[in-house]
């Protein structure tokens, strides 16, 4: 067992000052048990906690650290920019540079607005879709997570699903009525919602590679294309929430990988290279509805601040290196295959969903995990908690919830992948002894 004395002391102190001792619920380890690690530093594929335990990190700050932690060029760029002023509350040239970079990379984006988080991106995109269509209702999916704005906390994934609270207290019932939900991969349920709410649905919002219920696969059976088609037929917008999968599963995100174009795209995480940034963008005629060009209001003091823009520029420009995504995906595939082989050898039933460098191993007897209720009803969440803690003891840091994804970065070496597979074999041997 690793020594976690100082992390435990920090956690005890933090609990007095912060709800649950954390600033984002899943970090509290409530569903997996054990002591949340307080981190002191990170470099490349590794993080070190305050007790100086080293971990191979597969969270990567929940996705942004695709180049690895503290990449020297990103750090240098951000430091240089910080010295020139951290926020102006006025336009700066770095906003133009990052906007051009994103527009060049993400196929469906003509015009973009920067915000400060994925939550801001999705709530603003929803307002825009409502403003553009003049309709109030929208469809999301059970276990889809689009940040924590009121309308999205209906059958939400991620921390909400982890703690069995998919519908948050504090969301007015009258407002939540505008949120319609369907299971992933169930096009008949989506058709029924349109039939029952004809002419009232502004948009469908979906993570094209859902990562907040564990990774789900929506592309294999044509579901994403069916969503595109039904939106076209019904005059609704299709919003891809690519906060997690954007720049992750391909340079142009899931839309490029699957060749399906949304009307609006929400971005976050990698787009800031580890600094707080979000963005939403899309077709010109829709984006011109945003203030001051149009009547849909949205603003932000720190939006487009130079520090965050520079973090994004330094990160995104390095993703275009030849072979970057092939290499990343190859490492993720080796890891997933190795972890599954370890489970099989230990007699632990498991399956994986993987797209590019994001994946989830589900502890289940199901042959395939297709939707959120497959996770809540058919995955062994207790075993997941034990596995998670055993992996921590072996020096591997995974997301502390079965309802999340793992991320491989460019900094993970073949040796790291091999060491992780070996760690998992040892962890499973202890758990099944
Ligand atoms: N719900 C977030 C990921 N899906 C967790 C973010 C965090 O705790 O930092």
Short description:
By secondary structure, the protein is an alpha/beta fold.
Q: What is the secondary structure topology, with strand pairs?
A:
Blueprint: H1 5-17, E1 39-43, E2 46-49, E3 54-57, H2 72-82, H3 93-105, E4 111-115, H4 118-133, E5 137-141, H5 158-162, H6 173-176, E6 179-182, H7 187-196, E7 201-206, H8 223-234, E8 237-241, H9 253-258, E9 264-267, E10 278-282, H10 284-287, H11 306-316, H12 324-346, E11 351-355, E12 358-362, H13 372-378, H14 381-393, E13 396-397, E14 406-407, H15 414-432
Parallel strand pairs: 3-13, 5-6, 5-7, 7-8, 8-9
Antiparallel strand pairs: 1-2, 2-3, 4-10, 9-10, 11-12, 12-14
Helix pairs in contact: 2-11, 3-11, 7-8, 12-15, 14-15
The structure holds (4S)-4,5-diaminopentanoic acid.
Mind explaining what this structure looks like?
This protein is of the alpha/beta class and 433 residues long. It folds into 2 domains: 5-70 and 322-432, Aspartate Aminotransferase, domain 1 (Alpha-Beta Complex); 72-316, Type I PLP-dependent aspartate aminotransferase-like (Major domain) (Aspartate Aminotransferase, domain 2). It is 39% helix and 14% strand. The protein contains 15 helices and 14 strands. It has helices at residues 5-17, 72-82, 93-105, 118-133, 158-162, 173-176, 187-196, 223-234, 253-258, 284-287, 306-316, 324-346, 372-378, 381-393, 414-432, and strands spanning 39-43, 46-49, 54-57, 111-115, 137-141, 179-182, 201-206, 237-241, 264-267, 278-282, 351-355, 358-362, 396-397, 406-407. Strands 4-10-9-8-7-5-6 form a 7-stranded mixed sheet, with helices on both faces. A 4-stranded mixed sheet has the order 1-2-3-13. α7 (187-196) runs parallel beside α8 and α14 crosses α15 (414-432). It is globular and about 60 Å long. The protein starts with a helix and ends with a helix. The model has no long low-confidence stretch (mean pLDDT 96). (4S)-4,5-diaminopentanoic acid binds next to α5.
């Amino acid at each position: 067992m690793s020594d976690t004395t100082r992390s435990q002391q920090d956690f005890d102190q933090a609990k007095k000052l912060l709800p649950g001792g954390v600033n984002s619920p899943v970090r509290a380890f409530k569903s997996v048990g054990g002591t949340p690690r307080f981190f002191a530093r990170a470099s490349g594929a590794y993080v070190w906690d305050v007790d100086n335990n080293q971990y191979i990190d597969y969270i990567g700050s929940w996705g942004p650290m695709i180049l690895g932690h503290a990449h020297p060029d990103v750090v240098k760029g951000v430091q240089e920019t910080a010295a020139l002023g951290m926020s102006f509350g006025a336009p700066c040239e770095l906003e133009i540079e990052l906007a051009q970079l994103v527009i060049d990379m993400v196929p469906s984006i003509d015009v973009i607005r920067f915000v400060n988080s994925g939550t801001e991106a999705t709530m603003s995109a929803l307002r825009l879709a409502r403003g553009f269509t003049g309709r109030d209702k929208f469809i999301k999916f059970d276990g889809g997570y689009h940040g924590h704005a009121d309308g999205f906390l209906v059958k939400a994934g991620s921390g909400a699903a982890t703690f069995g609270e998919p519908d948050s207290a504090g969301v007015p019932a009258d407002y939540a009525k505008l949120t319609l939900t369907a299971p992933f991969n169930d096009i008949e349920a989506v058709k029924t919602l349109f039939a029952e709410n004809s002419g009232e649905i502004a948009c469908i919002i979906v993570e094209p590679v859902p990562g907040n219920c564990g990774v789900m696969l929506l592309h294999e059976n044509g579901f994403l294309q069916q969503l595109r088609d039904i939106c076209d037929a019904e005059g609704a917008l299709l919003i891809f929430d690519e906060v997690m999968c954007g720049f992750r599963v391909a340079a142009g995100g899931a839309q490029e990988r699957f060749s399906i174009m949304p009307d609006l795209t929400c971005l976050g995480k990698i787009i800031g290279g580890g600094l707080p940034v979000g963005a939403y963008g899309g077709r010109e005629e829709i984006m011109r509805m945003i203030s001051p060009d149009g009547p849909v209001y949205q603003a932000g003091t720190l939006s487009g601040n130079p520090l965050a823009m520079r973090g994004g520029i330094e990160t995104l420009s390095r993703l275009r290196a030849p072979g970057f995504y092939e290499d990343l995906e190859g490492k993720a595939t080796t890891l997933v295959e190795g972890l599954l082989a370890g489970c099989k050898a230990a007699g632990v039933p498991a399956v994986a969903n993987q797209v590019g460098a994001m994946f989830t191993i589900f502890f289940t007897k199901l042959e395939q995990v297709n939707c959120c209720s497959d996770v809540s009803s058919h995955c062994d969440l207790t075993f997941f908690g034990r596995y998670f803690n055993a992996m921590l003891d072996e020096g591997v840091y995974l997301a502390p919830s079965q309802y999340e994804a793992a991320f491989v970065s460019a900094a993970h070496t073949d040796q790291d992948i091999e060491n992780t597979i070996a760690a998992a074999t040892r962890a499973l041997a202890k758990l099944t002894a």
